[in-house]
Design brief:
- InterPro entries: SAM-dependent_MTases_sf.
- Helix content is 27%, strand content 34%.
- The chain starts with a strand and ends with a strand.
- Bound molecules: S-adenosylmethionine.
């Protein structure tokens, strides 16, 4: 029988147990026993980067780091001139990437094109008012409907969308990862962005169904 090893543990800011585990060569991040992320299902995270890549962005903001699959694909598609800011709320996620996931994507944080911001991605968005970023990729929660961290709610509302728009350069693109489709969020996005669309995303390349949704909009 394959053994599950707990590599590290901590508490989330709201006091729930969070574990990093390894099983059969794959890594799992669990909060309260529920898997929030794993290295087995990363296609939708990479697809976000590919949708951003369509506009060849130079300055990119990614929130959050997770296991770094979005970051890896952004760097693969980016030029030497790319500037990529990765915002991550939890210090343990950055530490665990460096200590335990170096062979997965953890070493990408040392890429000279990458700037790591330990804190809320909303801070980076607010500092970028005036249109600093060509692309903003937001995979910080389960999506507009079904948030894990209530603090992220502000990103998906009318004010949050306006702040994101002003952080984007003209022609820039925002992409939200979501566990669910959400027509009302798509309608709200369409009030602020051009060409808004919901794109079905697979958890892994051979999956039969599109289990996630990527919301895309252009400034
Ligand atoms: C689902 S994971 C991201 C997965 C990532 N796209 C990947 O490729 O592995 C969500 C991450 O966002 C972080 N996070 C949650 N809220 C955040 C916020 N407001 N600002 C920055 N990071 C946040 C979480 O700690 C977690 O590391």
């Amino acid at each position: 029988m394959k053994v599950t090893t707990t590599l590290a543990r901590c508490s989330t800011p709201d006091g729930r147990p969070m574990l990093l585990q390894e099983h059969d060569g794959h890594y799992f991040l669990k909060v309260d026993g529920v898997t929030l992320m794993s290295t087995m299902a990363t296609a939708s995270e990479q697809q976000m980067a590919e949708l951003a890549g369509e506009i060849s962005p130079r300055r990119v903001l990614i929130g959050g780091m997770g296991f770094g699959f979005t970051l890896r694909r952004v760097l693969e598609l980016g030029t030497d001139e790319a500037e990529v800011t990765v915002a991550e709320l939890l210090p343990e996620i950055l530490d665990w990437n460096r200590e335990h996931l170096g062979a997965v994507n953890g070493s990408l944080m040392d890429d000279s094109r990458v700037h790591v911001h330990l804190g809320d991605v909303a801070e980076c968005i607010d500092r970028a008012a005036g249109g600093r970023f060509d692309a903003i990729l937001l995979d910080v929660d389960n999506g507009p409907d079904g948030l894990v961290d209530g603090g992220n709610d502000a990103l998906y509302g009318r004010k949050g969308l306006k702040r994101i728009k002003s952080a984007l350069a003209p022609g820039g693109r925002v992409i939200f990862w979501s566990a669910n489709r959400d027509r009302s969020f798509e309608r709200e996005m369409a009030k602020h962005f051009n060409g808004v669309r919901s794109i079905g995303a697979k958890a892994y390349p051979k999956a039969k169904r599109f289990s996630h949704t990527l919301f895309v909009g252009d400034r």
